[in-house]
Amino acid sequence: MGSFAALVSRGFTFEFNSNEHAASRGHPRWGMVIDLDRCTGCQSCVVACSVENNQMLGSPEEAAMGRIIRWLKILPKTESEGSRVRQSLIPMPCQQCDDPPCTRVCPTSATFINPEGIVGQVYDRCIGCRYCVNACPYTCKFFNWGKSQWPKEVEQSFNPDVSVRDKGVVEKCLFCHHRLQRAKDAAREEGRDIQEGDYVTACQAACPAQAITFGNLNNLNSAVSRLASSHRAFKILDDLGTHPKVVYLKEG
Ligand code: SF4
Ligand code: SF4
């Protein structure tokens, strides 16, 4: 997935800085629902995301400078009412906005939204200006400050479907887009269309509490679309007009 040409050849279609919702053109619209009532904060999803996407482990020094890269973060949320304090945890990948502010500011169109609603990154086009990092209200984009390094043992377990990012580029969650390509290839070989459950993300697959549901929001019969219209559903910073495709279910 390293180069622009490689992305195109693998079926990642491009539509630079379009703000028109993918929903209107008959494509799938990939989205995620995270049930906060089920999430135990175990961080299996964080580990799965790191391993799946060849993320650097990082050192204590980098952590002290706030330079650890995790495409999926667990954010603490504290609510208080009088003397009662309630702490909960919110897993947060890229919100895959339908109207993403990050794509509007990139001078090289290195970040874009594709017709299936996935907000992508072309690492070879990124010049590291970090406009997109600052435009993201969810702080879901990460600048790669250092040369990628891993302990020797870890290098043996790289995911060959995901490129190792160079120093000086911005990276983020792509909804494990390489898994979509694999699912499409498998369905094509079997002579059928891609079905519900063919394309699952690494974080969803790893969650022991089944708190994460992923799928096509445009399919009204899909589990993700039913959950997204639940009375418990909400979106983070929804009033900004970014139209996230990550929907949360509140506790209760
Ligand atoms: S969450 Fe941030 S990085 Fe992701 S699409 Fe929205 S603005 Fe872009
Ligand atoms: S969808 Fe994939 S890349 Fe995004 S947070 Fe989940 S595991 Fe990480």
Mean pLDDT: 90
Distance between the termini: 41 Å
Strand order of the largest sheet: 8-1-10-9
Number of helices: 9
Share of residues in helices:
10-25%
Radius of gyration: 18 Å
Name the hetero compounds present: iron/sulfur cluster
Low-confidence region ranges: 1-20
Q: Hey, roughly how much beta strand do the residues contain?
A: 15-25%
**What string gives the helices and strands in order?**
HEHHEEHEEHEHEHHEHEE
What structural class should be given to the helix and strand makeup? alpha+beta
Largest sheet: 4 strands, mixed
The global form is: globular
Instruction: Work out the number of β strands.
Output: 10
Describe this structure in words.
The chain is built from nine helices and ten strands. The protein is an alpha+beta fold and 252 residues long. The strands form four sheets. It has a four-stranded mixed beta sheet with strand order 8-1-10-9. Bound molecules: iron/sulfur cluster (2 copies). One iron/sulfur cluster binds next to helix 2 and helix 8.
Brief summary:
With 252 residues, the chain is an alpha+beta fold. It has helices spanning 4-9, 44-52, 60-64, 101-104, 131-135, 152-155, 177-189, 202-206, 223-228; strands spanning 30-35, 73-81, 84-92, 111-113, 119-121, 142-143, 170-171, 212-216, 233-234, 246-249.
